[in-house]
Every structure is written in C-alpha cells, then in structure tokens.
Amino acid sequence: MKGRLLGTTAIVATGFAAGQAVAAQGVQLGLGGYYGAAAGLLLSQDDGNGDPGHNTRNVVFRQDVEVYFQGETTLDNGLTVGATIQLEGQQSDDQIDEVWAYFKGGWGEVEFGDDDDATEQLQYLIPSASNIFGVDTPSFEFANNLPGGNGVFQTNTTLLRLSGDATKVIYFSPTFAGFSFAASYAPDRRGEDQYSGFVTANNSGGTTFSNNGGDIQDVFAAALNFEHDFNGVNLATGVGFAEGQWEVKGPPGSAGSVDNAWGIDGHLFVTFSGFTFGTTGLYFDNWQSASGADYWVGGVGATYNWDAWTIGLAWSHGDYEYAGSGSSSDTIDIVAFTGRYDLSAGISLDAMVGRYVMDAGGGTGHQDYDAWEAGLGFYIGF
Predict the structure, then answer these.
(1) CATH number of domain containing 102
(2) Percent of the chain with pLDDT over 90
(3) pLDDT 10s digits, 322-351
(4) What is the domain extent for residue 232?
(5) Which helix (H) or strand (E) holds 9?
(6) Which residue, 211, 214, 207, is CA-closest to 192?
(7) 148: DSSP letter
C-alpha cells in the first residue's frame, strides 16, 4: 500500500464534493475519517521473572480513531485550493494529528503544513490482507516487548519518517508515462505526532526557533515511483531518500558527535489475477546522534483476493543498532497470517495470527523476547 494512500492521508470525497458545489462561496468543509478496533490475545510469551513479558497482560482491547475535516474548491483560473485537519478520536496530548493546506493544478500539487514527508508519502508497505494488522507499521501490535525497557522499537516499519509530521512544504508531480515524484523540506523535525524513538517534544503549529539536542534540522526528502499495467500485470516500484543535520553537536565520542542523519527506502510490487507479491525495505544511518548508530528493516509478503475475502502471509526483519552498543544490535522478526472480509466498501472484519521474536544484542543491555499473538477486529471508513 502506498504511504500516500494510507488512512491518515486519504481523500474524503464528501468534503471535495461540498467544496466544488459552492466554489463561489469558498471552501466548505466535509467530514470523514475512520474507526479501527481490535481485541488482542498473547497465546504465549516470555513471562519469567525479569523478562519483558513478566507481569504484563495477555488480553487487550485497542482503538484507533480519527475524524477528518476536509474540503476544497476550484477557482475560476483552474487552481484547486483545499485544507485538511485530522482530529484524534480519543483524548490525547497530541489531539490534532496532521493538518495541511494544498494548491494543485496541471503542474502538480503543493502542500504546506504538518504531514508526512516525500519518502513516506510514496512508499509502499509490506503486503497485508488486513486494514489494521500486519508486519509493517500495523495499527495494532500486541507483543509486550517494550515494557521491560527493550529499546524504542515496538514493531518494524519500512517508513523512514526522518521528519515525522513536522511542519513542511511538499511538492507532488503529475504522472508522466507511469513516473511520479515528490520532494519535501522541513526546517526542523519537531512537530505533531513524532515517531517513537525521536520524541523530544511536540511543537504545535510550526517550527521552533531554537536548536535542541536530539533533534534534526533542514530535513530534505525526495521519492520517485513508477507504476504501469502490462496486460493485466501491474508493476509498482520506487525509491526514496531523506537527509538532515543534527542540531546540537559536540566533541567526538560525546552526545551529538554525529553531524548528519540520512536514509533510503524502496519497494517492488507485482499484482495479477487477485494476487499481490511485494517487498519493501529501508536503511537509516545515524538515527542516534551520539554514536552514529544505524538500523535497517526489510520484508516480503503476499495476498490473494477473491470476492469479499482477502488472505495474506508476510514477514519482516529489523536490525537495530543503539548508541553505546558498539557493533551489537537487536533484531526483531515478525511473521503474520492476516485475513479480511469486506462487509461493504470501507467496512471490514479483520483477523491475524502471528509470531514475534526479538533477539537482543550482547551490548545493548536488552533481553530476548518471543510471543505468539492473535487479533480480531474491524475497520470502518467514513
């Protein structure tokens, strides 16, 4: 699935229709969003005294809900103008998720506001049959890996997220012979809904004026995609790159001793006769400023759709090096069988059974963890 088409950036048709119908009166906002929920069960996990699974719950209920206020209008000169505001459905310190305005025409589209950067917008996720479960950036993950202090990565993701939802400007090109590209720039990484492991503080409304330890500035990202249908066989492939500068530097060996952080990602998907096969991955260098630690994530998956049913099987692997661990790194492997039954357009019942295994590196100070997990839930788009 394209990052550009994820639920957090989905186009709400009702808002567009309302805006176009009354273009002479300006933009009229419409409503949209989604409601996802799931029950999770840990069938087995490490639960010895002192292990990450010790004194943790085996059954949980989860929700992920957002409401979109979105609309657009087309001016007499052909320029389309619109805005989107995404509101978290539960009480949150980060109540507004993403918010941006955009201008588009035959030359492409320009966005300004708090949104994903170019690499995340055009990246695909490892195939999953489910709207809410998967091995790559799922809405719901039930493993109890983090409670024991096992680093900052709860699950694997192939989205770079170098600037998160920080305030930025983004350009999307038109599609030429199957090719499209995007580019973005953020003065600072601080912003709404920062990625786990990069959090220093939320900075609602825009860029902070001060430099901060543990933050990245001048984040540039660019991505190129190609998609074409060859007589019923659809091919989609792409690559992305992002780079930024650590804001506070220090002498060699101290916190902030690394100058820059950068990463690349890519994907390759083939779809035909109801089958989808895909692989995607990323490499992130200097994700921690103190040591120049890096990590990489990759995986493969396949799905098959017939009528209202979709099933899938996927695997992802992440290798995470931490500051101070030398050459040691933690690895996380996730395998999941997913299924979905579509009750109607945008409404589904979803299920998952999977295995989660973390092997801790000797220098990271973390502990091994493994679990079998299962989930049952639903998704409602509106």
Answers:
(1) 2.40.160.10
(2) 63
(3) 877 777 899 999 999 999 999 999 999 999
(4) 43-53+94-381
(5) none
(6) 207
(7) G
